[in-house]
Amino acid sequence: MADPAHVVLVGMMGTGKTSIGRPVAAHLGRRFIDSDEQVEQRTGRTVKEIFESDGEAAYRRLESDALAAALAEPEPAVIAAAGGVVIDPANRELLRRDGTVIWLDAPPEILAERVVDGDHRPLLGDDPLATLSRLAAEREGWYREVADAVVDVGFRNAEEAVEAVLAVLRGAEVRPS
Ligand code: S3P
Fold it and tell me: Which of 38, 109, 112, 128 is the most exposed place for a label (fewest CB within 10 A)?
């Protein structure tokens, strides 16, 4: 395992990075940081508004800034990294170097049933399954590249997924503070 300072959850939209990350952080007695929440707080705009007004490339820069800022926090935290964070090679380098990275993985068919659209996921469009399948195929190798461990969340409910993440962290000697 890499330096266990920060715990970073990566994976596709709908894998539960936020809903799993929050209780994991509470269990460890750590701060929880959601990178998209940080983007929205800093800009005062939703992810959807940023995509619509400035375009995806501009959003990706903000996404990278939020990841770097979260990883630079001195107190070990649990970080839910936005799904697309692995696209940028510089982000992948940061993730490989800093923290314990856990890839939450599930098949697109299951994610398509779980994802909720809203102001946060403008990419989903009219056919979430097709989008998720395409993005998963593009990104799978990148998630694998940065991950210290993989947790299959496809057949686990949220509670079981939290327990599975905590079990991985116990193995990595990341314990409650
Ligand atoms: C995206 C995932 C979303 C959000 C944006 C783009 C992606 O975050 O950042 O809609 O490219 O996978 P979640 O992974 O939290 O859903």
Answer: 109
Assess whether the C-beta atom of 36 lies below 6 angstroms from ligand 1: yes
Instruction: Answer whether 121 contacts ligand 1 (Cβ < 6 A).
Output: yes
Contact in structure between 65 and 37 (CB atoms under 8 Å):
no
Query: How does pLDDT run across 76-118, given as a tens digit for each residue?
Result: 999 999 999 999 999 999 999 988 999 999 999 999 988 876 6
Measured from the CB, is residue 34 less than 6 Å from ligand 1? no
Residues in the chain: 177
Contacts of 38 (CB under 8 A, 6+ apart): 66, 69, 70
38: tokens are 């940080």
Model pLDDT for residues 20-77, shown as the tens digit of each residue: 999 999 999 999 999 999 999 999 999 999 999 999 999 999 999 999 999 999 999 9
Q: How far is CA 32 from CA 24, 28, 29, 74, 82, in A?
A: 9, 10, 9, 13, 14
